[in-house]
Design goal:
InterPro entries: P-loop_NTPase, T6A_TsaE. The protein has helices at about 15-30, 45-55, 95-100; strands spanning about 10-15, 35-40, 75, 80-85, 110-115, 125-135, 140-145. With about 150 residues, the chain is an alpha/beta fold. The chain has a seven-stranded mixed beta sheet, with helices on one face.
C-alpha cells in the first residue's frame, strides 16, 4: 500500500500539440532518475506527445520517440537512464513482473503509459499525469507529485 503524501494537483491547459510538448519539457526539468511517471488518458489524448517533450529535455530527438505499444519497453540514449513503457497490453501483474522493470525502480526514470494495473506497486517518488480531451480539442493535464 502506498502511504506517500501527495501534493495538491497542478492543472494545465494545452490548446495545441506544441503546448503539450513544451509542458513535457517543463515537467521533465523536475524529474530525476529515481522518479516514476504514470501517464493516464484515453487513446489519442497525448501521452506519447508529452513523453516526446520530456525526452527532448533529456537530449533525445523527438523523432526517435514512439509509443512502445508493441515493444512494451523502449530505452533511449539520454543524459540519464530512461525507460518508456506502454502497459496497454499487459493484463495481469505476473506479466508486469516478467518484464523485470520493478528492478529499475529508483535506478531509472520510468515513463509508463497505461499504468492502471501496476500503479499500486509503484513507490514514491512518482508523478501521476492525467490527460483529458476537452470539447474544443484542447488538453487538460492534471499533475500530482508524491
Amino acid at each position: 500500500m502506498d502511504t506517500s503524501i501527495k501534493e495538491a494537483p497542478e492543472y494545465y491547459r494545452c490548446a495545441s500539440e506544441d503546448e503539450l510538448f513544451l509542458l513535457g519539457e517543463r515537467l521533465a526539468s523536475r524529474l530525476t532518475p529515481q522518479t516514476t511517471v504514470l501517464l493516464k488518458g484515453t487513446l489519442g489524448a497525448g501521452k506519447t506527445l508529452l513523453v516526446r517533450g520530456m525526452m527532448s529535455y533529456f537530449g533525445v530527438s523527438p523523432g526517435m520517440v514512439a509509443s512502445p505499444s508493441f515493444a512494451i519497453v523502449h530505452d533511449y540514449p539520454a543524459s540519464i537512464p530512461i525507460k518508456h513503457l506502454d502497459l496497454y497490453r499487459i493484463t495481469d501483474l505476473d506479466s508486469w513482473y516478467q518484464l523485470g522493470i520493478e528492478e529499475e525502480l529508483g535506478r531509472a526514470l520510468l515513463l509508463i503509459e497505461w499504468p492502471q494495473l501496476i500503479e499500486a506497486e509503484i513507490p514514491s517518488p512518482k508523478v501521476e499525469i492525467s490527460i483529458t480531451i476537452e470539447a474544443d480539442n484542447a488538453r487538460k493535464v492534471a499533475v500530482v507529485w508524491s
